Please model this.
Amino acid sequence: MTAPLPKAKRSKVSRRKFLIGSAAVAGGVAFGVYFVTRPPGNPLLRDLKPGEAAITPFVKITATEITFIVPRADVGQGIMSTQAHLIAEELDIDPTTVTLDPGQPHPAYVNAKIASNSLPFQPLDESFLPRTVRDLMETAARLSGAQFTGGSSSVSDLHEKLRHAGAAARETLKAAAAKRFDVAAAELRTENGAVILPDGRRIAYTALAADAALLEPVTDVELRPAEQWRTLGKAFQRTDIVAKSTGTQDYGIDVNLPGMLHATVRANPGRGAGLRRYDDTEARSLRGVHSVVELTDGLAVIADNTWRAFRAAAALDVEWLKPDYPATSDEMWRILEDAHVDDNIDSRLRDEGDVEESLQDTDVITAEYRAPFLAHAALEPLSATVLVEADRVTVWTATQVPAAIRDAAASMTGVAKDRVTLHALPAGGSFGRRLDHDYVLQAIEIAMSVPQTPVKTSWSREEDMRRDYPRPLHMARARGAIADGRVVACDIDTISPSLSASWFGRVFVVPPGPDTLIVWGAYDQPYAIPNYRVTGYRAPELVPIGSWRSPGACSNSFFHESFLSELIASAGADPLEERLRLIDDPISRGVLEAVGEMCDWNGADIGPGRGRGIAFAHSHHVPVAEVVDVSLTDKGIRIDEVWIAADCGTVFDPVNAEAQLTGAAVWGLGHAMNCELTYENHAPIQTNYHAFQGMRLYQTPRFHTRLLQQAPAVAGLGEPATAPAAPALADAIFAATGQRLRQMPFDRFVDFR
Amino acid sequence: MQLSVNGVTHDLDVEEDMPLLWVLRDELGITEPKYGCGIAQCGACTVHIAGAAVRSCQIAVSSVWGDVTTISRLGASEDLHPLKAAWIEHHVAQCGYCQSGQIMQAANLLSRNATPSDADIDAAMSANLCRCGTYPRIRAAIKTAAANMRNGE
Model:
């Protein structure tokens, strides 16, 4: 099921999807807007029993417990806790006393922000057209049931909805108490899970559930201003931190059901191609093996224990068919280079001044940059547990795309969508990998071979890395000019396969128009360079690719900021001062000024054997500036200090926000140092962490972070601090050594301790 | 074959070369040690055997030489083990998948060294991978736990 359709058929399908998608935007707007701007209904009402109240789709109260529906997936970014605290702030309850449930997929939980974030407009452009089209895309997202977690969009999408849900629940409970005790609602207050009567008596919310269930919910509520928040914006305890600090947190891979079988998969590492032949005689003879199942593009072993399944999978004698993409990274790089021709221009969303003219008469500065394929390699290997019964399917897994899984499970098994139950579980990391559901579809296919029996399918680490949808190969060619100590021209051509066509095509629908992910992090930077152009070139697909923490920006920011650093250095200007001079957005200037103040910026020269680098990125609606200090040691380059200043608007969860800033920077630095997937024989040769190290504790610098909270709109922090990390490190290494690093990973050229 | 885990002795009928990790997870249902790599490159499966931190994915069950301890048994009393308390205080975990292994590794360090320096922490902890990048807080939590253990908390 992961195999792409044959070419002719595939283009027909995407054409049809394209028409539906654009019809929703262009043709069906009036109906669509009307239809989807109606409240999408409350899915909790369906299963309510007498005496239970579901005041909004996010809050359910019974006589014994309170449940919050927290629909965005927790993949480590802490969003389950943040969602709970957003509701709890208005509901006046300790969220650790509440049951948190990711809920079932439903239009009430659609993520509207993510679709509008991918539009080809400058993110800071709030003029009529971008605003209108963003609204239309949010509408289209709701129409198509796009419930997913990604793009650092959860907080911006949900913070008002969840606080409103908490406030509506609170006011409805007060109305119930007012009626029962015959007092005015205005005389009541709420505190710690109870309504407080004027005489001081405390009536627990749970004791009011039956009364509240009979009332029309109060929805005309005002959100409390930030000055009145008791928890939000202050240091509070993550709802999952005790479980995750005591070994009691269960993840998707920890599911254990009575009578459960354990499976693993050995699929063609050449994505999209199937089996030539196989012999499973030896595998089936091993202890504990239940069966060997043929899948669309591989084999599964079902056994009574995961290790036995792994061992049998390794004993399979398999020959694979060749996929229709080149066998090696070298060949793929050549295709990318060859794709740099006018016919492949996909977008030119930044084109100011007269770039061609500005590059005529001066000494043109040129450079070429490269970013490799990268695996997500979340520490928890992919897994899913599935039980297929005659008229129902139950899935236990960690996912960012629950609605897509429900739909796929229904169509694969023939059961109705509302007979699919999805237990969304915490993930041991994702970094974008769980925006795909290939591993769940496989697990469904496997479980269909043993109906009535739950089967947990776990991938080995090797399978997880061989069968990733990696970050795309990406390269840029840049030209620029300087005059009178200033940057006057910057022309960046950025070349990559279309992530949007690859990923959206697998999980959702391919959106019309240019793929902004090819240029994200380059075209949308707030620099006012007099002659400034960014052109996206769409290369052939190569291998199927996926979203990788800050897609587009994670590569383009390296290209853009590195080239800007080269121009600034050639101009003899100060890297911080020249960026401040060129940036025309006050919020973005604010983070640069802040990071300069935090590190006592006084240029890139911080003494012999050392170097200081800086980079800025406007990534996922958040301006971030990072400064990196390195030292040269006899064991290699050491990263000493990193300063990060960012502005995501209001910060609801400051302890977690700091963790996301430093974690994203570790992610960006570690992969820039030493990670790549190199293809040979159609598959990556790096299949485990020995060959894909990332950053280790001894390499970790000291971090200093600041969030300015001046931006007018709220934005998420899961991704933004990744983008500037690699260019800031490259810039620091240049300051220390004079060597420009234009290709990641840097350990191809320098040693790190 | 017999195996003692967290003070309980289990009778097993498994292959001698089955790694301890999979005996714990799939035979005994103890899922605290995690599978991350299977080749001793991540440390998510770290448990103690006779008090020493080991990668349970690399130990054949037949060669286990002493009592096995997993994180739930770490700390003798009703109180939270100082490392667990420090992990909570510093909000170390993000996804948390590596943290049982990190804590078991840190416990081994503190049992040998009550006042670990940065270099000691680097040396003891750098084979435990955290893809979320929680390392700065791991360092801080180990120092807090060490201080609290010295003060008898």
